[in-house]
Every structure is written in C-alpha cells, then in structure tokens.
Design a protein that fits this description.
By secondary structure, the protein is an alpha/beta fold. Helices cover 36% and strands 18% of the residues. The protein has helices at residues 15-20, 37-46, 52-71, 77-80, 107-116, 125-138, 150-158, 187-196, 239-242, 253-262, 280-294, 321-328, 330-339, 343-348, 356-361, 393-400, 429-437, 455-463, and strands at 10-13, 32-36, 82-83, 94-98, 143-146, 162-164, 180-185, 199-200, 211-216, 219-228, 233-236, 269-274, 300-305, 365-369, 381-385, 408-413, 443-448.
Length: 464
C-alpha cells in the first residue's frame, strides 16, 4: 500500500491566490491541485471586472475550461481529476474541482458539523473552502492550504491543516538590494579615481549601476561616491551635475545617487525605495522637469499611481477623468508646487508653461490612471509610477512592458506602507522588481533611508 508520505501533496487554492496570479495553478504541477467549488463561484463574481482582478479571473476560468475540454468525452472529469500533463507536458499532478462537505447525511459531513458546528457555517464561502481542505485531510491526504488571506490561514491552522502563503513572486524584504555598498580602500585608490575618473570595478564585486561609497583607510573624511558602469568601470558621481537639479539639492548621499541614476538616459528603469519624507517623488519629478523642459530628452512627463485609498473609500467622484484624478494626484501637485516656486508664485505666472496648469495644457505633463495604461505603447516619455508598492508583480510587469523607444521609467514607493490587503513587503511588485532586475545594465536602484521632509516627519517615521 502506498504510504501517506509517498502520495503527492494536495494544494488547496484560495480565491485570492488565483486573483493575485492567474499562473498560480501552474506552480504546483508535480502535485495535485484542488480548486473548491466556492472558489469557482467567487471567480464568477470577478470575471466582468475590467481591472487586473477581472483579467486574472477570466484567465483562470479559461484555463479550467481547457482542462475540461482535454478530458472530453468523459464528463465529471474535473471532479475525478484531470492530468495537468494534458496542457503542460512536464506536469505530473492532477487538478480537481471539488465541492465542500455539506449537511448531508455522510460520516465526514456529520463529523465536521458535530466538531465545528456554526464555526464552519456552510453559508460562508471561506468556510466551504476550508471544508474541502478538511475533508481531504480526514481522508489521509497531505493537504496544504494556500491563501493570501492571513485570517483564513489562521482558521485553517486551527483545523490542523498545513498552511502557506503563495510564495511565487516573493522576495526577502529584510535583505532587499539597496543599490550601494560601503568599503574602505587605500587613499591612493581614491586619489587615482579622482585623477583618472575611473577604476576597475571587478575587485569590489559590484553589479552594473551599483554605487560604492569608498572611504580612505585611516581617514574617513576622505571619501568618494562612484557608480559601476556596464563596462565594469567605477566612475565618480558628477557632483556638479547632481548638486542642483531644478533648484533641488541632495541632502544626503542616497539622494545624490538617485539623481545620478535619474539623470542618466542610459538607465531606462530606476526604482527608489524609502519611507515617508525621504524625497522619492520629489527627486523623480525634479529630474523629470530637468530632462523634459531643459534638456528636451523626452517629450513629456507621465505620472501615474495606483487608485487605492487609505482608509474608507470616498466613493464616486464627479467630473471628467482629469477631475477624478485630481484628488488622487494631489501629492504630485504638492511636489510640483514646491518645484515651481510655491502657490503664490505659481498663480502670478499661471500663463507660463512653468506652472502645473501650463505644463498640463502644453502636454508636457500628463496624469494617467493605471487602469488605462494596459495596451498603450509609450515612446520618448519620462514615466513616474508613484506608490508602486501597491502593485502586484504582474501589474508592474504589465506597466514596464508599455515602455517604447527612448522612454525612461521611475518606480517609487515604500514597501512598508502598503494599502493593498493581499500584498506585503515581500510580495509587492516594487520589491519584486528590485530583486529581479538588479544587475541589468539598464536598471538602477537606490534605497533612501533618511527622512528630509522635516524634523517632525523624521521623528514620526522613526518612532511611530
């Protein structure tokens, strides 16, 4: 008889896993995958949505239908298990669509109802999903319940069911790539770097576009910030170029590194990670104004951010797209007002192109909701995606793939301030992008550590 240990594992998938990634079913191909009927019912509620959740729901439903058709002419095969090899040759497991144990007069149903009663009321879709997992466990299967819902994982664990978060697309947030490293080197090497403007980067083990903060051995006051180029040469950061960008001066070394990446057209994608007040959005906008208005390297600045509220949603907003976006884009307007000289001066020169209204009217600045970015091709533009930590890895992939020729994209955000209920510091699209793209010659990243907004802001960020 086949032992329990030799049987394939059974992964029971929650709805939020499929909505998070339509490819999640294909992540368990060497084991059996179970999708409870309640999950299919919940997918049906999302399939008409025009957002990412709706697209993922439709994709999963089509995947299940392809499996069903592969099983024809047999009927009821999804209940009995369809080999995943019918779609993927390398897969060895099966996919099942199963119903929950109900109040029917069966030994398993009676046992569940007698043990848990109202705690697992059948009227709740979540409980029907858990009943499927519990039923399989009682039959001796090695069940693992996969959910991004923390509360549901707690309930499953209380039932004695092994639980896991969906790990695909997750990174280790505690050791996230910072984009720079510090080292002590001989003073003669620093002098040579200043004199010849380059050093071999290979001895330092740097990745392309990674920075080195080098201090002289025995003399910490002698230092230099240099960046590793794609040709494996270490080049000092141009202080004259980064000292003032659109009247914004860097207040710490990380901000200077950020300006160095933002102003380099060869670096097509820049990610800036940091807490509140570290200057992520301001630096990105200042560099964009410099490159678009002064240097004419790009046709316009395109700014977008996820439409996810903090707290209760305020509901319907009147007006056209611009009016609806105005409330969500207020942080961008605040930074633009600062860059353009403040509210009073902005009003005094409202007819100038160097005002928020003037930039929008002259098409040098465009505000766009991420909802409408799919399908677009964006050439020769400087694109800023603010609050990118609220995006899934798939959504970030969709956005970055919109970039056309000569376009630069900047993603900013704080992985520790996430409003999306199914993302965390390790699974969000911003952190995933940083870890997956590090080392690519067109990518650069800096983690900003110190709040420069105000003394109070820095205090709140560190103590609250």
């Amino acid at each position: 008889m086949e032992s329990k240990e030799n049987k394939p594992k059974v992964f029971v998938l929650d709805t939020n896993v499929l909505l998070h990634s339509a490819q999640s079913v294909e992540s368990f191909q060497d084991n059996d995958v179970v999708i409870p009927m309640a999950v299919v019912e919940e997918l049906d509620k999302f399939k008409k949505n025009s957002d990412e959740l709706g697209r993922n729901a439709r994709q999963v439903i089509r995947y299940l239908d392809r499996l069903r058709q592969k099983a024809l002419p047999k009927t009821g095969q999804l209940r009995l298990g369809v080999p995943l090899s019918s779609i993927s040759a390398s897969a060895t497991g099966k996919l099942f669509v199963l119903t929950a144990t109900t109040g029917q007069d069966t030994p398993v149903a009676r046992k569940v109802d007698a043990t848990f009663g109202s705690e697992l009321a059948y009227s709740s879709p979540d409980n029907r999903i858990l009943r499927v997992a519990y039923d399989l466990k009682r039959k001796g299967r090695r069940v693992i319940f996969i959910s991004k819902d923390i509360n549901l994982r707690i309930k499953a664990d209380a039932l004695g069911i092994a639980v896991m978060d969906f790990e695909r697309g997750k990174v280790n947030s505690s050791s996230l790539y910072t984009g720079f490293r510090a080292a002590e080197i001989p003073a003669s090497e620093i002098d040579k770097l200043y004199r010849e403007h380059q050093l071999p980067a290979r001895p330092f083990g740097l990745l392309p576009n990674e920075f080195l903060v080098a201090t002289a051995e025995g003399n910490p006051k002698q230092s230099v910030i240099a960046r590793c180029r794609a040709d494996e040469l270490l080049v000092p950061v141009d202080r004259a170029k980064t000292d003032s960008v659109w009247n914004v001066s860097p207040r710490n070394r990380e901000q200077r590194m950020a300006f160095d990446l933002l102003l380099d057209p060869a670096v097509k994608l820049v990610t800036l990670v940091g807490g509140a007040g570290t200057g992520k959005t301001l630096l990105a906008l200042a560099a964009g104004m410099q490159l678009v208005l002064n240097e004419n390297l790009y046709d316009r600045i395109l700014v977008s951010r996820p439409i996810i509220p903090l707290g209760n949603d305020i509901g319907f907003l009147p007006g056209d797209k611009g009016a609806k976006l105005a409330s969500w884009m207020q942080p961008i307007f605040d930074n633009l007002d600062f860059l353009l000289g403040g509210e009073a001066e902005r009003r005094a020169k409202s007819s100038s192109r160097y005002s928020t209204e003037g930039l929008i009217n002259s098409h040098k600045l465009e505000l766009e909701a991420l909802t409408y970015i799919r399908g677009r091709s964006i050439p020769r533009q400087y694109v800023i995606v603010d609050e990118a930590q609220n995006l899934t890895p798939h959504e970030v992939k969709t956005i970055i793939s919109r970039c056309g020729e000569d376009t630069k994209m900047v993603l900013t955000g704080d992985p520790h301030q996430i409003d999306n209920p199914y993302l965390d510091a390790s699974s969000n699209g911003l952190s995933y992008t940083v870890e997956r793209l590090k080392g690519q010659h067109v990518f650069g990243h800096v983690t900003l550590a110190r709040s420069e907004r105000s003394e109070l802001s820095a205090l709140a960020a560190s103590l609250l």
